[in-house]
């Protein structure tokens, strides 16, 4: 028979994983033994998964975030090692002691995360509420030496739902409760009265300009009222005098208010800073505008240079093309004019070649006849030689005449080409002369005549100078100007009053 312990808990048979009575628990002593949960009546399916009761409220140990309570029925993790995964194998069962173990000299160093582990059930117990996905029960644990009294319990100091808490945690709970009570009891503080705006109002140049204009207007009004008071100082009655005085005082008060702002050192300094910034901004804008204008001018100049280069290149190509076309035209004309002469020259050359071939043939036949023993007639040979020499001489003389004719034709062609170029240049000179006459008529009218006698006679030159000198003025005269060194032409885009005279 087993004896009933003082704590009211029945002693269970010792297992290999349980220490003896009074034996201190050391690390690595408690090992997991397969099929151990069946000996304690443990059922794996009776433990619901964590997602079913993640926010269960367990007595006084609950928090606003509904974390699981700290389970005091389990020994510290450093005493029984790391527990196996929940869904891989059952966790180790808590040991059963015949009497409480002695108190530890120092509080256990339980990690913070270990306090949020899921609680374990008592062996042999299974709450039917778990099948309904209700909150898991709190494990009972016998009292240990050195622990505080349980917060709740009705059966021999230990009952289901008993939770042991240390003094530090209890003090924290009490302090939180007191703090919540104080916060709820204190009425909300009334909103603090708006502090006077000590900061200066942001000064703007438009506001300063308005104040300056207003001050000038008030000063003018004050001067007008002063004149009126001076005029009616002897004749005005008391009511009218008081009205003018009150009006003057109001204008003066408004003017003094504006002057007070202008006498404020901070206001003046801030206004100076604004003026300096505005001046710097204007200078910056002017500088940027000038830079943009210079950039545009530089871009225009570069564009004009590029256009001038392009025009020069095009003119060069045009000249080369004109020269090539002119040469081709001259060649075609020479071929058409000199074709007959060249044909005659080719016929003369062909006749000379024919005579030379005929002489070679007769010489060959004479040699062949001599080798065969047939002598040739000397008179016939002399006659043939004389005839061929006469014919070749006549053909050569004719070829010389053809060469002379060709040279004559070439000279005539060159002269005609020079005449054409001279005609073109004369045509250009005539166009330039007409342009000069048009400018003369534009400047002096259609009835103006050119008088060039001053370049031939000294008296005429003096007369012309006297006519011009009558218009001389001093240098400081507003209409004074120097005599232009060339013709002063009208602008390319004249105004509307002069546009009628432009052709």
TrEMBL record:
Family matches, as Pfam families: PDCD7
Signal peptide: none
Domain of life: Eukaryota
Pro residues: compositionally biased ranges: 87-100
GO cellular component: U12-type spliceosomal complex
Alphabetized UniProt keyword annotations: Coiled coil
Coiled coil ranges: 280-330
Transmembrane domains' residue ranges: none
Region listing for Disordered, in residue ranges: 1-100
Protein name: Programmed cell death protein 7
PANTHER family: PROGRAMMED CELL DEATH PROTEIN 7
Presence of the UniProt keyword Coiled coil in the record: yes
Keyword ATP-binding: no
Species of provenance: Portunus trituberculatus
Native organism taxonomy: Eukaryota, Metazoa, Ecdysozoa, Arthropoda, Crustacea
